[in-house]
Amino acid sequence: MFSDVLYFVLNILFSLFGIALIIRAWMYAIRLHPFNPYSQAVLRGTNWLVGPLRNVIKPSNRLDWPSLAACWLTALVYLLLTWVLLTGQLPAAEGLLRSLFAAVITMAKWAFNIVLWVTLIQAILSWVNPMAPVMPVLQTLTAPLLDPIRRVMPNLGGLDLSPLVLLLLAQVAIMVLQRFAFSVFGV
After folding, report:
1. Which of 52, 75, 87, 163 is geometrically suited to a Cys-Cys bond with 106, CB 3.0 to 4.6 A?
2. pLDDT digits (tens, 9 = 90+) for 84-96
C-alpha cells in the first residue's frame, strides 16, 4: 500500500517537472515571449536544473538542448527510482542501458501528453471563455501543430475540427509509445 502511494507521488512529481522542462523547450522553439507570467513560472520552476546544464550544453538556433537534457535526466532518475521502489534494488547493467533509452520514450510520452492537454484546454476555452488571459499563450503553443492540419482539413464554415484531429493523433501516439515501451522495457 505504501509503495503504491509513493509510486503515485513519484509519478506525479516527476511527470509535472518533466512536462515543465518540455514546455520550456517548446517555448524556446516557437520563441514564446519569456516575460508573460506563464513563461516566467516555467522558467523559474526549471531554472535550478537547466541553468547549470546551460553552462555545459549550449542551445542551438531552434532547440533548447539544456532543457531537453534536463528532461532526459529527470526521466532517467524517475525510471531508476521507480525500479528501486518496485524491486528494492538497483537495476543490473543491462537494466541501466535499457533505462537510458526508456528515458527517451518517457520524454516522448510526456511530450504527447502535453500536446493532448494543451490542445484540449485551448479547445474548451475557445468555447467557454475565448478571452481568457492564457488563450494567446495556448494559441502560440498549438499554432505550429494545428496549422498543417488546418491546411489539409476542409473548411466547415467556422467549425474548426483541427484540435480534434490533433487530439486523436496525440492519443494514438501515446498508445503506440506505451505499447512499445511495455513490449521492449516492461515500463
Report:
1. 75
2. 888 888 878 777 8
DSSP state of 45: H
Report the C-alpha gap between 32 and 28 in whole angstroms.
6
Q: How many CA atoms lie less than 13 Å away from 120 in the CB half-sphere? A: 11
Q: What pTM did the predictor assign?
A: 0.90
Q: Take residue 11 and report the three cell numbers written for it.
A: 509519478
CA-closest candidate to residue 178, choices 118, 120, 122, 106: 106
- Which residue ranges make up each domain of the chain? 2-185
Which DSSP symbol is given to 60? -
Angle, alpha carbons 46-170-17 (nearest 5°): 15
CA–CA separation, 49 and 43 (whole Å): 10
Average confidence (pLDDT) over 96-114: 92
What pLDDT, on the 0 to 100 scale, is given for residue 144? 94
